């Protein structure tokens, strides 16, 4: 795996690299770690040369969504939840939810909201696949206008569910918009289990796979959660690691609520245990048919077209989506985005993947028998250098495992 070593070392070189630190870990279908390495520095400060450790803690942001999806599908498997039931029957806060169509100029006054009732059901399936209309206000100009109209100060990164108490931006099932569906799914889990999401995950996920360093509340678990890798912030493009300055976790914490979409802190070794369990068929977390459900594309044609148009450039690169009109390459499952066609030299058809705001990435390729994750802490999101890194690591990993005589076959695992 020397090729992967060279890639990581090159991208994290203090003189020629573009990142202050990164960790990469990969596992095969037998549960064996086939590669793991932390490279670079734990600190974004050029003067601090403390090396990054593989067991450092990271704010994994939207990689939390996979964990919440596993928890939700566990409850579907047990008959406690259904993918297609009306969730407003179980979440009282959502019963009077409306759809914000637009902000329109009032007669001689400010912009005013044009709202309409929700038509049909809001389902767990919608929430897990971003087809419910729960779009993050941080990426929605119309919701930002609505917040100004209401004098609202809560937002996506407030650190509580207050950041997600706002109207939908489209009727459920009629489009696609990235947002707080998984955060509300976490609330649904809390309502039906009478436990916090932290308590549920510790009892039903992390303890089952021997992961002890993952939590919504690292401030309460200093004895089990290792020190965090420092967040970096890229100040300019084209200067490599020299452009990175110390930054901060933009999520308000300690968290007031366990946010199922963005709230977890974890380590590479903990998170790869989750990926490994799913890659191996689900045990001890889910039955194999529930894992199939977790990875199955779920979007309607109209939602899949909308997703292709709304994906950012860097995520399109990861998923092999040519442009905003390429709606036949990617779909969405409860686990994450799903690649619908093989990407030559990289992941196979059916691979599920997603990312985290500070430029983390994971994927599970069940056909090839590979799962892997890249851990970084750098803002702003969608950093092109990190996309370059994850693509090079993926290509190198598949190249090594394929071998010179296996160019058209799956990796030899």
Automatic annotation (TrEMBL):
**Keyword annotations:** Hydrolase
Q: Report the sequence similarity comment from the record.
A: Belongs to the class-A beta-lactamase family.
Keyword Hydrolase in annotation: yes
To which species is this protein native? Aspergillus pseudoustus
Record protein name field: Beta-lactamase/transpeptidase-like protein
Which stretches make up the Beta-lactamase-related domain?
A: 21-391
